[in-house]
UniProtKB/TrEMBL annotation:
One of the GO biological process terms: L-threonine catabolic process
Residue ranges occupied by any Tryptophan synthase beta chain-like PALP domain in the UniProt entry: 83-387
Pathway: Amino-acid biosynthesis; L-threonine biosynthesis; L-threonine from L-aspartate: step 5/5
Catalytic activity: O-phospho-L-homoserine + H2O = L-threonine + phosphate
Reported cofactor(s): pyridoxal 5'-phosphate
EC assignment: 4.2.3.1
Name assigned to this protein: Threonine synthase
Modified residues (N6-(pyridoxal phosphate)lysine): K121
SUPFAM superfamilies the record matches: Tryptophan synthase beta subunit-like PLP-dependent enzymes (SSF53686)
Keywords of this entry: Amino-acid biosynthesis, Lyase, Pyridoxal phosphate, Threonine biosynthesis
Amino acid sequence: MRNDDNLTAARPTFVTHLECSMTGERYDADTLQGLSRAGRPLLVRYDLDAIRAMVSPADLALRPADLWRYRELLPVRRAQNIVSLGEIATPIVPLNKVAAGAGASTLLVKDESRLPTGSFKARGLVMAISMAKELGVTTIAMPTNGNAGAAAAAYAAQAGIEAVIFCPDDTPEINVREIAAQGARVYRVNGLIDDCGKLVGAGKEANGWFDLSTLKEPYRIEGKKTMGLELAEQLGWELPDVIFYPTGGGTGLIGMWKAFEELEALGWIGSKRPRMVAVQAEGCAPMVRAWQGGERHATRWEDAHTLAAGIRVPQAVGDFLILDAVRASNGFAMAVSDAAILEAVDDAARLDGLLLCPEGGATLAAWRKALADGLIAPDDRAVLFNCATGLKYPMPDQSRTLDRHGPIDFTAL
Ligand SMILES: *Cc1c(COP(=O)(O)O)cnc(C)c1O
């Protein structure tokens, strides 16, 4: 039977409980939760046996191509709590000329720029805000480097929830304006994103805000998990050899890793996993330093700087989950320079017509470096994540001018 509308379809839910990602301690899923008592992220657990008995990949194929087609693996219990702006399945775009130029057979980009508010933050925030609505939240507060705040503001507007957003004072101008335009109160703070996070922590005590910081509530990761579900389905339930992920808080990398685990438990994929590559910028690479040092936790990166604002995260609450996934997958962590990022953005646009955001450019720069260093092979099937639209970022002015009143040598144009 065809379900014409993923949003209103009857939705038995399969959530059993929440679980501390560090200690395994169980928590009730039907009350508002933040971090675990151990101060670590909470993960949503499902009755996967019941899901396996209830749905199959063939059932999914009949549903509309959006994020809600995975509803059995998502936490929202009541359809009326879903806030949606049209979370479409994003395309996988090949970079054929870039691949050929590097001597590789293929290179694929999961182009997340097409999502509402122009970034994959929509996946996490549509879930977190829908759940906040379900659990009776009236005001959310959040730190952001730009895109998360924009997605939060948009979905909060739809949910009728107040949003208070704190961003570093040098956050891209368009993001700050976009957040305000979508009805949130946005504050520029003279600090970095973790400093903004501390303000949220202090403000929630005083004002009763709900803290929607990444991984400090259980549901953004469930939304980001859909990148892994969607990728698996789009590739015919056969995962790629390697995934390059631009890593800030790491929610997407952790979420995809969780998705693969759930898919294997469902029997929808086998045990093959992609190597997970955490890509960071040389000016802010706490995960790379910890990975190289064999540490399970990362220390704060001081004086963090990079033009790739989305991955300028000096300290991440899910550090050990990122590093565990990278190691378990036999992957690696790699830092790239801002110059290599700019070159990658320029090449993908000029050669293959795909305008990446700088963070997406970072994954391309890392792929090139990994290939050159022999960390991956030319025939490895690699997937890069382009997480936001390149249109939100400044582009160099390469225009020429013409005087229409003077003589024009058309052969020279
Ligand atoms: C948030 C963001 C990232 C980092 O994503 P995480 O899952 O938080 O690590 C990368 N790129 C862009 C454009 C972002 O907005």
